[in-house]
Amino acid sequence: MKKVLILYYSRTGNTEKMASAVAEGVQSSGSIEAEVSYHVETESLKLYDAILVGAPTYHHDMPVDFKNLFEETAVHGISLKGKVGAAFGSYGWSGEAPKLILEIMKYKFEMQVVEPPLLSKYAPDQNMLASCRELGKRVSETLMNRA
Ligand SMILES: Cc1cc2nc3c(=O)[nH]c(=O)nc-3n(C[C@H](O)[C@H](O)[C@H](O)COP(=O)(O)O)c2cc1C
Questions:
Q1: Nearest residue (CA) to ligand 1, atom 20
Q2: What is the value of pTM for the model shown?
Q3: Mean pLDDT (whole number) for 55-82
Q4: Relative orientation angle of helices 14-27 and 126-146, to the nearest 10 degrees
């Protein structure tokens, strides 16, 4: 069974709500396993067919945990090439974090990314949650079409 990681960070719960809806979308196909987590060991990234990162923007930047994770992944030579990647997150006014993450996935790790990143201004409303489910569905369909 194909496995999808939905890795997220959230201080006030907005990106967390998005992550739950993305997971619902991934699971709607019924044949893909979705794991939602706040943390992942670098080595474990190898286990997933798709990696979806939920990152709120604080101080025009991505959460430091994700910077460390990407740096460790590169330093240890862990290949993410060809894995499906996507990024989403809540923001207030500038929303850089998901864009930065998608760039790293695409240009550093040569992942097959879903563009553009999905951004929610503060708390996601029903329309945004539907878009999150749609993103998850798109990822699982991409994986199923690969089989
Ligand atoms: C100290 C602080 C700094 C922030 N910096 C930014 C920023 O640089 N750009 C932006 O778009 N939003 C910024 N925000 C807004 C957050 O991204 C927004 O509140 C978001 O909904 C938080 O998501 P979360 O609930 O998943 O933590 C900031 C918020 C705080 C409290």
A1: 91
A2: 0.98
A3: 98
A4: 40
